[in-house]
Write a structure and sequence with these properties.
Elements: H1 4-9, E1 17-23, E2 26-30, E3 40-44, E4 50-58, E5 62-69, E6 76-82, E7 85-90, E8 106-107, E9 113-116, E10 119-125, H2 126-133, E11 139-148, E12 152-159, H3 173-183, H4 189-198, H5 201-209, H6 229-241, H7 245-255, H8 266-269, H9 272-285, H10 290-299, H11 301-306, H12 326-333, E13 350-351, E14 354-355, H13 361-370, E15 374-375, E16 397-398, E17 408-409, E18 414-415, H14 421-433, H15 438-450, H16 457-468, H17 478-487, H18 489-497, E19 504-505, H19 508-518, E20 530-531, E21 534-535, H20 540-543, H21 579-595, H22 612-617, H23 621-633, H24 639-650, H25 656-671, E22 678-679
Parallel strand pairs: 7-8
Antiparallel strand pairs: 1-4, 2-3, 3-12, 4-11, 5-10, 5-12, 6-7, 6-11, 9-10, 13-14, 15-16, 17-18, 19-22, 20-21
Length: 680
């Protein structure tokens, strides 16, 4: 690394208070240096031994450090606290090993010579060392230094930096597909080419965040009792062809955190405009303020109906009425802070070895009082149940007569008595949005939906740090959070650095959209999509999932769903991999690929995939397989599957009909394989 990095750190030095403590003979001498405050000399004493110096610090971990060594290079050894646990690094070649080191896993040479302000030595950056010795490693703190006899080491420390945006490397086709599968509803040949030409993930994200919003509503001519299928058509159109793919993918993720469903709710089934409007609200707020999103969710009439906040009223003991706790409980448990207190890295905060609850029943009852007095805009009277007048589009409005105006003890203070419904709600949402749990809670939830089911604690904390402060002092900037999630080194390189734990089972809807987008699927002649030979509002019957049709407020699966019995890993989407659904999904993929492609007769107005690219290369089986591996998997098939597939395809005659058969068989074999079930 260059010394310019040290210069950029210098304004940060000295903000924390490092204390180096020698374990055994040795001395610590603070050095006066106005350009590099916090410079400290560690001097070994004794004969033929390594001397250990332990770091103590206040307030923040110290990493991102730069070292200056003396000319007497016998040996420098570092112990680093990283996102992969403790790591020991030998910083210069030597045959000796420090007596107090249990093991030295890595050895690196010192950096370039540096002569700054009379200091002669070499520059060492722990973050660079970590990434060199083990890609994907980030340093949380340096905890120990071992120095050999007569060697002095001058060390300057800076606070551990927030997530740095990794520099864009050359984006390969495989890397582009992997990124697009995380950030969109699936890679297409056009989107791959555009990303590779742009050469920057960050620039692509910026373009997407500025793209016009593709909306699902309102639907012309819809009214009470309308067919709910009408809201599904534009959702699939946007997922498969919308220009704001990142926004739509994030909105789909948010719809599985802030859940509503018209699966069994008659009022919602009969109001596709309202349900479409809720989804469009999530899309509009996807890159905005979490606090604003929380208020939009709270006051949306679809949520008001779904979790019974609409019509919630203050206690009336004479009528045996008390405030409804439904929304109050779920806004805490599912939309914001979760069940237990969290550390910034998403791990539970413990007391006496047990997780600390983040709220209790009494707090739920207090929040239930907050959410009283709200009902649908345009209702003729309180609890007007005429469904023809039920406004599920415009935000709910307060009716003060039914609002509880008593004082309310909440998360971080008591709301004073006598406030109106809107003031109580705003102050309560401020408390929720400001809670320390929200950053790691939302970071974990969004990482699981977009990138990997088992993010490291370091990954969660880096994203949570951005939630807490986007770099401008703003809290809860969801656009910055999404960008941090997708640009994090773990997102971009986790398939290499954490191969055994990285990735996620593809949820059925994403698996379908990835296949249809990969082959430029087009609607049938009627203009409406029938996906996998089913009407879009019936797809859940065969694959277990459809947008905004979860069976409960807990979504289609729990985020803690284990990968298997006694497994420490989670695989939430695996809950839908039942024997029946796995079988029916593959059967429907068979119909889509074999019967509903552009080389076969159109039937039932079904969506059809296009095979022109595959047909053009099907004369070369190796080329065809390599193309499909990258497009559908973002990786190479293992030889145990690849070789039999190549042999099978090669056995099909290289004729016009044969090339169609090769293309269809290759696609079907790959998307039916377990490798297509996992997003890496």
């Amino acid at each position: 690394m260059s010394t310019s990095h040290f210069t950029t750190l210098s304004p940060l030095l000295g903000q924390a208070v490092p204390r180096w403590v020698p374990a055994g003979p040795g001395s610590v001498q603070p050095l006066s240096n106005t350009q590099y405050p916090g410079l400290t000399r560690l001097q070994a004493d004794g004969s033929g031994l390594y001397r250990q110096f332990d770091l103590e610090y206040d307030d923040v971990p110290l990493a991102g450090t730069v070292y200056f060594g003396s000319d007497d290079y016998y040996g420098i050894y570092l112990e680093l606290d990283t996102n992969r646990g403790r790591r020991q690094v030998k910083c210069i070649p030597t045959d000796d090993a420090p007596r107090r080191f249990s093991s030295v896993r890595y050895q690196v040479g010192l950096g370039r010579d540096s002569r700054r302000n009379g200091i002669v030595g070499r520059v060492i950056d722990t973050q660079s060392i970590a990434s060199i010795v083990e890609p994907g490693t980030t340093v949380n703190a340096i905890t120990k230094v071992f120095v050999r006899t007569k060697l002095s080491v001058d060390i300057a420390l800076a606070p551990a930096p927030d997530t740095p945006e990794p520099p864009d490397e050359e984006i390969t086709r495989e890397a582009a597909v992997r990124f697009l599968n995380q950030a969109t509803f699936g890679a297409t040949e056009q989107s791959i080419a555009q990303l590779m030409a742009l050469g920057s993930y960050s620039a692509w994200i910026d373009q997407q965040m500025n793209a016009p919003i593709s909306r699902t509503g309102p639907q012309p001519g819809t009214s009470y009792g309308s067919n709910s299928r009408l809201r599904h058509y534009p959702w699939w159109d946007n997922a498969l062809g919308g220009g704001d793919q990142l926004r739509q993918r994030v909105a789909f993720a948010l719809s599985q955190i802030f859940v509503v469903s018209d699966l069994i709710d008659k009022a919602l089934t009969d109001n596709p405009d309202g349900v479409s409007g809720y989804y469009d609200m999530l899309a509009a707020q996807a890159f905005g303020s979490y606090r604003a999103l929380l208020e939009h969710v709270t006051l949306h009439p679809v949520m008001g109906d779904y979790l019974s906040m609409a019509g919630n009223q203050k206690a009336d003991p004479a009528k045996n009425v008390r405030p409804d706790e439904n929304f109050a409980r779920e806004i805490l448990q599912l939309f914001s802070i979760g069940l237990v207190e969290l550390l910034p890295n998403g791990q539970p905060r413990l007391a006496n070895g047990r997780a600390i609850p983040s709220y209790d029943q009494e707090l739920v009852e207090e929040f239930a009082k907050v959410f009283t007095g709200w009902y649908f805009e345009g209702a003729l009277f309180w609890l007007d149940t005429n469904r023809g007048r039920m406004n599920l589009v415009d935000p709910m409005v307060p009716t003060e007569e039914y609002h509880d105006r008593s004082a309310k003890r909440l998360l971080s203070g008591t709301l004073p008595a006598g406030q109106n419904a809107r003031r109580d709600l705003e102050m309560a949402l401020d408390q929720i949005a400001g809670h320390a749990n929200v950053g790691p809670f939302m970071a974990t939830a969004l990482i699981k939906r977009l990138v990997t089911s088992n993010p490291s604690a370091g990954y969660v904390q880096r994203v949570a740090n951005v939630f807490a402060n986007d770099g401008t002092g703003t809290r809860g900037n969801l656009g910055a959070v999404v960008k941090a999630i997708l640009l994090d080194d773990e997102a971009r390189r986790g398939h290499v650095t954490s191969a055994r734990t990285f990735g996620k089972v593809k949820e059925p809807v994403i698996r379908i959209t990835q296949v249809l987008r990969a082959f430029d699927a087009r609607p049938g002649p009627q203009g409406h999509r029938r996906v996998l030979n089913r009407a879009v509002d019936q797809i859940e019957d065969y694959v277990g999932q459809a947008p905004l049709e979860s069976p409960s407020v807990f979504n289609f699966y729990l985020p803690t769903e284990p990968l298997g019995p006694n497994s420490s890993l989670t695989a939430p989407e695996g809950a839908l991999l039942t024997e029946v659904l796995a079988s029916t999904t593959n059967n429907k993929f068979y119909e889509q690929v074999v019967m509903d492609n552009d080389q076969s007769p159109s039937r039932n107005g079904n969506t059809r995939i296009r095979l022109s690219r595959e047909l053009a290369m099907a004369g070369d089986v190796e080329r065809l397989v390599e193309h499909l591996e990258t497009l559908l998997l973002a990786r190479r098939l293992p030889n145990g599957m690849r070789e039999p597939l190549v042999q099978h395809l090669s056995s099909i005659p290289n004729t016009s009909a044969g090339r169609t058969q090769r293309s269809v068989d290759a696609i079907l074999c790959i998307i039916s394989s377990p490798y297509h079930l996992v997003q890496i």
